[in-house]
Amino acid sequence: MKKEHNSINNLIRKQLIGSITSEEKEELNAWLNERPENREAYERLMESTDFSERYQRYEQFDDEAAWQKFRKTYFGNRRTWMKHLLRVAAILAIVIGTTLIYTHKTKPELPQLTAAVEVAMKKSMDNGKNMAQLTAPNGRTITVSSDTALQNSIDEINSEDDMDELYSVSTQVAKEFWITLDDGTKVHLNYNTRLKYPLKFTGKDRTVYLDGEAFFNVAKDESRPFRVVTDHGVIRQYGTSFNVNTTEKPNVTQVVLVEGSVGLSSVAGKERMLVPGEKGEMTADEGEISVEKVDIAVFTSWNEGKYKFNDCDMQTLMSVLEHWYGKHIVFSNNELRKVKFTGSIDRYRDFDDVMQGIKFASGIQIEAVGNTIYIK
Question: What is the largest CA-CA distance in the chain?
Answer without folding.
Answer: 78
